[in-house]
């Protein structure tokens, strides 16, 4: 099974990875990852509203970290959550 990841840049310029298919809590938050905070949880809709899409140049360091340091070898980069993506 593939793990969908969506890269965004927040208002402070930090790149974050959202995992819309990974339910972080019972409150409906999804998994996320940043360089500094590493794994956490996020309100998907709030992050989309308050950030902009990251370009490949911006997100490539974080993508490399996810693959090489964190072991995510099944990532599929998307610009938005697919309609059939439900957090597990």
Overall description:
The protein has 88 residues and is α+β, with helices and mostly antiparallel strands. The protein has one domain (3-78). The chain is 22% helix and 39% strand. Strands 1, 2, 3, 4, 5 and 6 form a 6-stranded mixed sheet that branches. Strand 2 and strand 3 (30-34) form a beta hairpin. The mean pLDDT is 87.
Question: What is the total number of structural domains?
Answer: 1
- As a whole number of angstroms, the C-alpha radius of gyration is 12 Å
Query: What does the overall shape look like?
Result: globular
* Share in β-strands: 35-45%
Helix content: 10-25%
Helix/strand-derived class? alpha+beta
Question: On the 0-100 scale, what is the average pLDDT?
Answer: 87
The CA-CA distance between the termini, in Å, is: 12 Å
How many individual β-strands?
Answer: 6
Please tally the helical runs, counting DSSP H or I stretches of 4 or more residues.
2
The biggest beta sheet is recorded as: 6 strands, mixed
Provide the succession of SSEs: EEEEHEHE
**Stretches with pLDDT under 50, minimum 5 residues:** none
List keywords for this structure.
single chain; 88 residues; alpha+beta; six-stranded mixed sheet; 2 helices; globular
The gist of it:
This protein has 2 helices and 6 strands; from the N terminus they run E-E-E-E-H-E-H-E. It is α+β, with helices and mostly antiparallel strands and 88 residues long. Strands 1, 2, 3, 4, 5 and 6 form a 6-stranded mixed beta sheet that branches.
């Amino acid at each position: 099974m593939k793990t969908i990841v969506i890269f965004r840049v927040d208002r402070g310029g930090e790149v974050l990875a959202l995992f819309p298919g990974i339910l972080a809590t019972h409150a409906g938050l999804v998994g996320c990852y940043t360089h500094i905070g590493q794994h956490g949880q996020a309100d998907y809709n709030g992050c989309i509203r308050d950030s902009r899409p990251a370009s490949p140049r911006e997100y490539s360091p974080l993508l490399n970290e996810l693959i090489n340091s964190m072991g995510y070898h099944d990532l599929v980069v998307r610009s938005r959550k697919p309609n059939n993506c439900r957090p597990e």
